[in-house]
Amino acid sequence: MIVVGLMSGTSMDGLDVAVGEFGLAEGVLTLRLLGAEEYAWPPETRERLLGLLPPAEVGLAEVCALDTLVGQASADAAVRAIERFAGGRADLVASHGQTVYHWVTDGRARGTLQLGQPAWITEATGLPVVSDIRARDIAAGGQGAPLASTLDALWLAGDGPGGGAPARRAALNLGGIANVTVVGGPAEPVTAFDTGPANCLLDAAAHRLTGGRAGSDIDGRMARAGTVRGDLLARLLEEPYYLLPAPKSTGRELFRADYVESRCAGLPAVTDQDLMATLTELSAVTVADACRPYGLAEVVASGGGVRNPALMEALRARLHPVPLVISDDRGLPAGEKEAYLMALLGFLSWYGIPGVVPGATGSATPRVLGRITPGDAPLRLPEPAPRPRRLDILPPA
What we know:
Blueprint: E1 2-8, E2 14-25, E3 28-40, H1 43-50, H2 60-85, E4 92-105, E5 108-115, H3 118-125, E6 129-131, H4 135-139, H5 148-155, E7 169-174, E8 177-183, E9 191-197, H6 200-209, H7 221-224, H8 230-236, H9 259-264, H10 272-291, E10 298-302, H11 309-319, E11 324-326, H12 337-350, E12 371-373, E13 390-394
Parallel strand pairs: 1-4, 3-13, 4-6, 7-10, 10-11
Antiparallel strand pairs: 1-2, 2-3, 4-5, 6-12, 7-8, 8-9
Helix pairs in contact: 2-3, 6-10, 8-10, 10-11
């Protein structure tokens, strides 16, 4: 089955599209990577999406307009990807949409909202679309995140580094928010949770400091030119979220555009470079502190943050002696992982397989995720398939 996965993360820098061919036999799920690409949001659309984030108050007309604009852009990207990577033929599209609000109170997820009307994708491709991926898990008592734990648990379920016995490893995704999935031996439960900010505070600061000219400190140049301010770092680390037990989830509703400014109040002035260095260190410290209790043999990183050398250097220093590797070294390109995750979740939902690993998101009972928009052909779902025990990544043929 050929599935297109569409994903735009909390950084809101663009739409990631991946096309994969899936097979399932004797408990082994295979994913052949057919191709992936990132489509940048038009500048006006990105600014309008960022304008939805707290503390902004936005009318329903703008929410409706962006639901359509994201849906139309997703439809265009899906059509282009099917033609380029699948020879013009695919079976299913799985679209995450753009998260604009993740509602968490008292440590429990209450709701989540992603924009990107799937009807536009179906109309453009003629294919059924799986969307609204997170809501069912929240309704079942889960956090709705991190859904990367589903892919991670299957993907890292094999041998340990070097082909030895299974070792406890963590998959680390460095998007706007950082999340980890801890995977051990076959009898060990999977633990997954958001650790805190990865890029979102850095991106917001870079956007503000450059007057909107830069959406991120992608090469780490600003951070490398500065010095970590211990007083500001200590204040940032007082955030209560870091002490909450897993599973837990967070987003830009907590780590808002004005989050850092409010925590700088009363401190001596902080230079631009020192601010970026301190926020980089904050991401590294909170990830490393979250990983440390699990006695990891390896951390496998993916997401946009792997392109920031200052962040990767800080992470390696904080995680030492645990090695930090990039997911490319394990067969899955770091910048494409979440789009392939969406394709995987769409495949699982199509075959009636729960899209979360037991316990990973906090839901008592794993559920089949998403809702399906029928395509042009009659909607005929296959018989439910058994849950796979492993995922093998295959290179393009």
